[in-house]
Amino acid sequence: MNNHSRTNTASVPAAVTVTRVIVGVLFIFSGLIKANDPLGLSYKMQEFFEAWGWNALNWSTFSLSIAMNTFEILLGVAMLVGYRMRLFSWLILLLTVFFGFLTGYAALSGKFQSCGCFGDCLPLTPVQSFLKDMVLLILVLYIFIYRHKIQPAISIKACVAILGLALILGLSVQSYVLRHLPFVDCLPYKKGNHLLEQMQVPPGAVADSFAITFRYKHQGKVVEFDAAHFPENFDSTFEYVDRYDKLIRKGNAIPAITDFSLKSIDGIDSTQDILGGGSKYILVMFRFFDDFEDHKAALGNVIQEGHRLSLPVMIATPLATQAQSLISGADHIFQLDAVVEKTAARANPTYFYMEGDLVAEKKSEADLNDFIQFIKAHAGK
Predict the structure, then answer these.
(1) pLDDT band at 4 (very low <50, low <70, confident <90, very high)
(2) C-alpha–C-alpha distance, residues 93 and 109, integer Å
(3) What are 116-158's pLDDT values in tens digits?
(4) What is the pLDDT of residues 9-38, one digit of tens each?
(5) 3 state DSSP class of 242
(6) 265 is a domain residue
(7) pLDDT of 92-109, one tens digit each?
(8) 20 lies in a domain?
(9) Which of 128, 44, 145 is nearest to 86 (CA)?
(10) Residues 96, 11 share a domain
């Protein structure tokens, strides 16, 4: 067996081994960076399902996200150790073809700003993602050709043990970040960001370019033209129909935060007043669940500590009316868009300590003690 393995390994070109390492590292990196924020991939899957009219399957995206991230890590490790390449080369080929289909669809449909291939930490446009997948497909096909000859350089038991550790790592990382928060927060609401700055168009950004297009009826037909291309025979026989703005060049003048607003239950927008204030305050992003009573005490501790430090305590939630009946002691309860809430608060609930519009601290309930210690140190005892 050992002689057979050495013979097969020796007959494999060195370029195949190098390619296998590159593909393996890429899949491990892709799996880990998405495992850092499995909810992000879950929401991206929902975008695809909604585009295909599969909204009824949205319930499954969370489990699919956990499984997909773990599977990518396992495939990458299998590539590195060369374990059961006849099987894993087929799996990685099919997955790469599937990714290519998704990114190709995203690029052609124009319905997505990014594909989520590397999560929010390394956003790629659909075209960039598709080109990446095509290069990856070439590399995977090269490995696939030699799949029968590739043998592991270590024992089978060692390979199985490494794959087991990779499985535990993938699941453990995702379990941790779901209870706490992502190790690396790549979203615009991360600690250290000024939210008002994130609402501004980035410096040097190019705005969308539009041309005013006119529609006139002439000789029984509707003709269109812009201000620079009026027909030479334009006269009173042209009957005006309407006009519209036609996009001629897509820009990139999109702020990182586009729809964050804090509205009272009466619909009054207080976003600028709240974020523009110089005083310190606590902002709690909240979603409600069946076991809310189990979390009520923790929230009460935050409210009590805020009042002791003379800090306003504010609740921002998509369910402001429900919050009003469930929570007592908060100074203000604001209505927050559900999509914004999912982006800003990956853990449920997430506590923000704000200094003006600066996110000075951000913790999940699992780290509530650390959060309270932080505000004590920064707001005075």
Answers:
(1) very low
(2) 24
(3) 788 788 888 889 999 999 999 999 999 999 999 999 989 999 9
(4) 557 788 999 999 999 999 999 999 999 999
(5) strand
(6) no
(7) 999 999 999 999 998 888
(8) yes
(9) 145
(10) yes
Shared domain check, 151 and 296: no
Count of structural domains within the chain:
3
**59 plus 161 within the same structural domain:** yes
Q: Are residues 224 and 305 in the same domain?
A: no
Global pTM value? 0.80
User: How far apart are the C-alpha atoms of 22 and 20, rounded to whole Å?
Assistant: 5
How far apart CA 139 and CA 149 sit, in angstroms, is 16
Per the structure block, which two tokens stand in for 80? 């590195």
Residue 9 resides in a domain? yes
Q: What is the CATH number of the domain that holds 348?
A: 3.40.30.10
What is the spatial distance between Cα 357 and Cα 129, in angstroms, rounded to a whole number? Answer: 34
Residue 218 is part of which domain span?
209-249
Position 363 in a domain: yes
By CB neighbour count within 10 A (0-12 exposed, 13-18 middle, 19+ buried), where does 3 fall? Answer: exposed
Indicate the SS3 state at residue 228.
coil
